[in-house]
Amino acid sequence: MLEQHNATATFFLIGQHIERYPDYAAEIVKRGHRIGNHSYSHTRNLKAEFFRDEVIKTERLLSQLNRENLQRQSLFRFPYGTFNFATLRVLKELNLTPVMWSLLTADFDVSVSANMVLNLLCSAHGGDIVVMHDNEKSISNLKTVLPIALPQLAQRFSLKRL
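and the corresponding structure tokens:
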């Protein structure tokens, strides 16, 4: 759907999913989207050594995936948005930039209607960092919302990159 609207996005990938779905991950890169690190197992464990291992494992996978693509940025998004000083130090040591969000669409919440997700997404302002998910819980909302929201947002912001 992004391609239909000449839009790109940054996908924060989970290492286990890169291993489980390598073709899907490669397709993201092939289509010109940027990729970032979202940990190896999407855990809530914030112990520094465990966190470092999670990040490094995923960095290795992202590097292999992205050998020829210059869109690779050293970005990291914390699972659940949870971090502490130790995890921030680890990212600094690994030269990764933490990324948070300004708009969480709740697309992953099965109790949230597609209409609510649409309203949240369409409330985006220029410069917002919008979080959406590409998993089983969110797919129904994505299929309903994106065909409506992408043209609206593209027109409103003259989007070239999402």
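(Above: one complete record from the training split.) The chain has a mean pLDDT of 89.
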